[in-house]
């Protein structure tokens, strides 16, 4: 029994379906991983903003403490000023108080600036948290979709695999070895259709002898790329 071109054509079609289904099955977990990675990036951003806010609040607190300490120092100096007897001492105290008040005014501005920045960053935090929420939903949606599709694809794959086994059981002679070796190495790409007078895998022109064998329905092996070539009857 010889292998017919139509059997190779059938094997090519089934191997293509198998490759396609396997590809779809492999893409599923990658889609989930991508959604997880996106969520992680968004979560990292939330963490970073929260860290930033914490740091700014600590800065503001420490400046406020400094401000209060200096205020009480000013209060003490004012007491001394009232009690001062010498003009020189009075002048020195007055200058000290003025310098401390000036320093506190600067500090006060700095604190306000930090508090305003915190308000802005809190708005950013809200948006970042919202994005995390959306990406969480997206991840759940994709995970469910992939899991549902996996069931369908696996059943489809097992159907295609038994169809393939059935078709392969019709192979005979030396051809089985060639076919198995080629498919193991190249999958669906082990076969190619004749296109004009060329192999559609590598686009090399075939010799007249090979074309003659193809024309009477025998599959042949391309001398250039090693694919099994068949002549479609469609
Ligand atoms: Zn070729």
Molecular structure report:
The chain has 234 residues and is mainly alpha-helical. The protein folds into 2 domains: 22-169, Helix Hairpins (Orthogonal Bundle), CATH 1.10.287; 173-234, no CATH class. Helix content is 78%, strand content 5%. It contains 4 helices and 4 strands; from the N terminus they run αααββαββ. The chain has helices at 5-83, 87-168, 174-186, 208-215; strands spanning 191-195, 198-199, 220-221, 228-230. A 4-stranded mixed sheet has the order 2-1-4-3. The protein is rod-shaped and about 125 Å long. The two termini are 23 Å apart. The model has no long low-confidence stretch (mean pLDDT 94). Zinc ion (ZN) is lined by residues 199, 201-202, 204, 222, 224-225, 227.
Percent of residues in helices comes to over 70%
CATH topology of the largest domain: Helix Hairpins
What does the radius of gyration come to? 40 Å
Ligands bound here?
A: zinc ion
The ordered H/E elements are HHHEEHEE
Distance between the termini: 23 Å
Portion of residues in beta strands equals: 5-15%
Mean pLDDT: 94
Supply the number of structural domains.
Answer: 2
Helical/strand content category: mainly alpha
- The low-pLDDT segments are none
Count of helices?
4
Reported CATH architecture of the largest domain: Orthogonal Bundle
CATH class of the largest domain: Mainly Alpha
The total strand number stands at 4
State the gist of this model.
The protein is mainly α and 234 residues long. Helix content is 78%, strand content 5%. A four-stranded mixed beta sheet has the order 2-1-4-3.
